[in-house]
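[job 0412] stage=fold_complex status=start
inputs:
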Amino acid sequence: MSHRVVLADDSLLVREGIARVLADAGFDVVGQAGDVDGLLTLVESTRPDVVLLDIRMPPTFTDEGLRALATIRDRFGPSIGVLVLSHHTEAAFALRLLSDGDAGTGYLLKDRIADLEDLADAVRRVARGGTVVDPAVVGPLLEARRNKPDRLAELTEREREVLGLMAEGRSNQAIAGRLFVTPKTVEAHTASIFSKLDLLPAPDDHRRVLAVLAFLEA
Amino acid sequence: MTSPPPMGAAVDRSDSLIEWSDPRLPVLIAPLALIVAILAELSLAHAGVPADGIASDAATGSAFALSGLVAWRLRPTSDAGRIMTALGFAWFFGDFLFAPVPLVGPLSLLPQAAGRVLFAWLLLSFPTGRLGSTLHRWAVGMIAGLAATLAGLQLVTIDPADLCACPSSPFAIAAGSNLATHLEAVSATVGIGMTVILVPLVVRRAVIASGPARRTLIPVLAGGAFALLSVAPDLVTRLTGLSVEPIGWLPIVYAALPIGFLIALLRSRMARGAVADLIVRLGQLPTPEHLRPALSSALGDPSLEVLRWDPLSGSYHDHEGQVVDPSTVGPTRAVALLETDRGRVAAIVHDASLLDEPGLVASVTAAMRLAVENEQLQAEVRAQLEDVRASRLRIVEAADTERRRVERNLHDGAQQRLVALSLALRRAQAQVPPDADGELKATLGSASDQLASALAELRDLARGIHPAILTEAGLGPALRALARESPIPVDLTLELEEVLPDAVAVAAYFVVAEGLANVAKYSAAEHASLRATSDGRHLRVEITDDGTGGADPEIGSGLRGLADRLAALGGRLEVNSPRGEGTRLVAEVPIDPGGAR
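[job 0412] stage=fold_complex status=done
writing structure:
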């Protein structure tokens, strides 16, 4: 079954581009909007599986996307996956988005949409209620910590890898698939990581992402 | 400065032959007075008056003449000094009764009579020298009548030849007659009559005088009353029949009058000095609520009121804000308007009697005008400074707004187009047939990679122009991001308030960005620390490193620009970089809640 997607971006060029790429990838693009109001009307009428929207839209071009997300969560609950596209790599934006967004929320760097597989993967994950954080956001967080004498230094190289994938919103299953290990091994890694970093085990994947991201951002 | 009610003492005498108010006049007259005094005392000596009598006579006469001349000199506009001087002359002329010169002796009786009139006149007219009321004019007229009567009697009964070795008087037709035996009684009656007329009037003057006027009057009236005591022995004798011996030094009690006169004069001079001192010492105009009490006590006028000119309504207001028209203050009040070349400032409504002390009010208003002008100049400088500050702040804010606009344009224009382009390129790549030659695929792949780099660079550029994270997440996360990106490990301490004014946060952000970039570029440091704190009043950012130091804050144009930016916000930048000891950069900006947008 193909996911039904609604797009919102103030640039027609970008909107059309994304719509074609998604259509090519087999998604059903059921509507496009140029601003938040149009988007909300579309969501109301089409009830899509996923909403893809730019973080900056008219009129102020600051955080309209985040506000639209909050409204969608308010009106339609967590059933609709929301993928927010942004030009900002700072983790603070992703953190704010995830704290507002609950499960089924993703933060993707806008450049990423040119990579069909990454885009399709992100859309599918939020449609399933997963959490997505762009690797371009997580990477620098880990990199900046590399040479510092903090608790992160106690992690093994493999554990750092697992931590990064967790921060991107990958499930244990997905991490296992990526690292060619069994889910049991990933579970052992995550438990070790949480203990070393002094983090409380999170009750679900979304809150796990939040906790890890918050730890890395601080 | 103008005074709607005329300056009381400034009487226009331009039509008279002699300019009596010329202050050089008393100086010219002084030697004349000395000659007359010497001649007078020689006359007394000629009559065989003992030395102590001559001394007391000279002292009393000189007291009148001197205090009169001094007053004339110091207050040329008042007649009081001239009247007092005339009294001195009259006193000495009286002594010429014993002059061994024909006619001079008997004629000296006329200035004696004039002296009595002048004495009354002075008491009733001080300090202006002008008789203000009909009652006073009547009193002086009556005393003049008494004095003239006495002088007439004396003229026909007194022959100097009987008293000393003097020429006989051609007028003394009744000398030695019955009339002569009653002369003494008539003389005493005249003295008592004067006392009876003057004392109630003098007491009345003292009682009804307003504060400042009384201050001037009291010494003179007291001196005059004391002088009138000279008739006391006579009076006692007349009323009780008891004989009281005339006291030898009695004439000297007359000196009480000129002494009181001088005291009054000096008092007002001191008052004038006190007010001028007050304002000069303050160096500025006292605040409105202090100005009135200060002027009031310095001028000795509790009724004094300071009216402020309100240029908006075009009217004067008293301290309660009531509109007051200074031209309707009433006859006992006078107004001094304070004006500068910019127009009206204030009006001082005071007791009209202050005008009797010439220059007093004028010196106060002059000093006030200086203070007002000084204050206006200072206010002007302050206003200009404030303008410059405000415009500097506006420049910074305009630059920030412009940066934000550019950043948004980059985002909505170039970045969006590049994203759309990269999408198109990906589609093109996807449409390349699998059997196409490798070169096309490689070219498309390279173009795609370059486009990704261009997007990343554009993102960094946009962030350098205006960091969106500041607006979106606040200064704390923005500084954490900067510290994270630094190639040199940065120890971070953040104690920041949630909400800071945009301009303050932007300034702090750029200081840290520039500071950390400099650490990375020049310091060769292994470690840096960043500390940002705010306490609700100030935001303080401190960057230290363990590098080579020796950074010159004058060289870095980046830091110079940041120092300007901070200064525009009322803050400052300090760079301390001793060679070999690392660099410490401190920026401090006041957090003005009014500056938050």
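[job 0412] summary: Strands of chain A lie at 4-8, 28-33, 50-54, 81-86, 105-109, 132-133.
[job 0412] exit 0
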